Amino acid sequence: MLQTQLRPSTQLRPLTTAHLAQTMALIELSAVELEQKVQAELAKNPALEVKDARRCPVCKRQYADKGPCPRCHPAQTQQPDQPIVFVSPRYDFVHTRRDEETVQERDGQLAKEDLPTFVLKQIAPELPTEDRQIAAFILSNLDEDGLLEIPIIEVARYYHVPLSRVGGVIALIQHADPIGVGSPSPQDALLIQLEVLAEHQSVPPHAPTAIQEGMDLLSRHQYAELARQINIQVHQVEEIARFMCDNLNPFPGRAYWGDIRTGQSDTPPVFTQPDAIITPVDDSPEAPLVVEVFSPYAGILRVNPLFRQAINQVAENNTEQWKSDLGRAELLVKCLQQRTTTIVRLMRRLAVIQREFILHGDKHLRPQTRASLAKELQVHESTISRAVSSKSVQMPNGHIIPLSKFFDRSLQVRTALKQIIEEEKSPLSDSAISILLDEQGYSVARRTVAKYRAMEGILPSHLRQSQDVVEVS
Questions:
Q1: Given 98, 243, 259, 436, which is the most exposed site by the fewest CB atoms within 10 A?
Q2: Is residue 7, in this structure, part of any structural domain at all?
Q3: How far apart are CA 313 and CA 19, in angstroms?
Q4: Which structural domain range is residue 67 located in?
């Protein structure tokens, strides 16, 4: 793998501004994107070189750590509940026939569904037939951020309907996944998300006021001025800002929706090259999990020692460019090391917390937020968000999923909902399902049940009844 000469440390030290900025940019990249970045740097910077990594004589995999292969020779003190985490080159990843079938299946499912279609599927059961054309028109006028590009009044004039009717359709769209989609502005999207979150958790009491009256000040981090403007304490504004960073997204179209994340292309991405693979070390129930984190290159990225020596052997007035190359090389190596450290720590912790989910499926996912994990790892919430962004993981069953799925708070509820419907003797209404979910410990409103049901492609009760009649006939 593309590693630095130092092994990833378990402690994150304070970073300089340049180091922090580049590390944050690198953390956000997937292994494929990072490979392109590093290859470009190698091509133009003579101070960088790649040294061959070790290769295990047993499993033939390369690894960057010192000592024996961490997969074939785990530490004698290895506990069953502690994962074995190591880094290896992405080139060692080889698709099996099963992997290819999984990719083709996902490709067929994902490439056909864009954001407007995804949203329309959710709201269709609650949408009057006469309003479906209005909804489709609104969804066709979303920009790449998931915001409405045209004024609401133009929609009303185009269809010769009251403004309130268009507003009702937009409200339905805004409460679909991703929350806030179809809003006329980032500010409105944030307020909708805040309203929905308030149904399930506590939110800072002055957050709506801060967003409505001080969005510009919040975006510029002018917390003291905003505190004076809305007559609250500075620490309360800081709490609001942290809450927004952890829980809200002013651009819903850029958020994860369903099991995928929208991008700049016309079709959603299909994960064919995971950033990590998780497998049990053997078939025993208590076997430790092995987490293999892929690096973008086969070897160890380092500063060329001969280049460093050469600087001391040339005249001082000729070394300016050489020193610049050396400085950029040293910074890149340090930032890549920091990226590796962060992702390894993240995957190690997720493998502990979500072991049952990894081994046994969706219904075993434990509720986990990026903010709580950041607190455990003692890093900023934005670091975890960047580390999760655009990454994918291959699970023991061969399926490749977005890393964001580990933080999907709706997944457990959707799995329970599917099980209820699979076991129903006669079609249950969304209200009845809401009651049954509540008995299982999931407090979910009827409207949310309808949304989750639509996300899973399940028909409403009256159509399931009709379907049963047709099948019997």
A1: 98
A2: no
A3: 28
A4: 17-95+272-407
Buried b / exposed e along 91-118 (16+ C-beta atoms within 10 A): ebbeeeeebeebbeebeeebeeeebbeb
> What residue has token string 């499912």?
109
CB atoms within 10 A of CB 306: 10
375-414 residue pLDDT tens: 999 988 888 888 888 788 988 988 888 888 898 878 888 8
- Residue 134's closest CA among 167, 104, 94, 179? 167
Partners of residue 400 on adjacent β-strands: 394
| Separation between Cα atoms, residue 179 and residue 253, nearest integer Å | 9
Domain-terminating residue out of 261, 280, 312: 261
Secondary structure in 3-state letters for 372-420: HHHHHHCCCHHHHHHHHCCCEEECCCCCEEEHHHHHCCCHHHHHHHHHH
Question: Is position 175 within any domain?
Answer: yes
Task: Write down the residue that tokens 């994860």 correspond to.
Answer: 256
The DSSP call for residue 146 is S
CA distance 349 to 377: 8
Count of CB atoms situated within 10 Å of the CB of 231? 8
Domain count of the fold of the chain: 3
Whether 421 is covered by a domain: the verdict is: yes
* Residue whose structure tokens are 């000592």: 67
Phi, psi of 402 (to 5 degrees): -65, 140
Q: Sign of the C-alpha dihedral, residues 441, 447, 450, 451? A: negative
- Considering the domain architecture, whether residues 396 and 429 belong to the same structural domain is answered as no
Domain boundary among 229, 261, 293: 261
The β-bridge partners of 85 are 291
Token digits for 257? 């929706």
pLDDT tens profile 290-340 = 998 888 776 778 888 888 888 877 767 667 888 888 889 899 888 888 888
Is residue 367 located within the same domain as residue 296?
A: yes
In a domain, 425, yes or no: yes
Query: Are 70 and 59 a contacting pair, CB within 8 Å?
Result: no
Whether the CB-CB separation of 410 and 440 falls below 8 Å is answered with no
pTM score of the predicted model: 0.57
Q: Tell which residue, 289, 410, 442, has the closest CA to residue 354.
A: 289
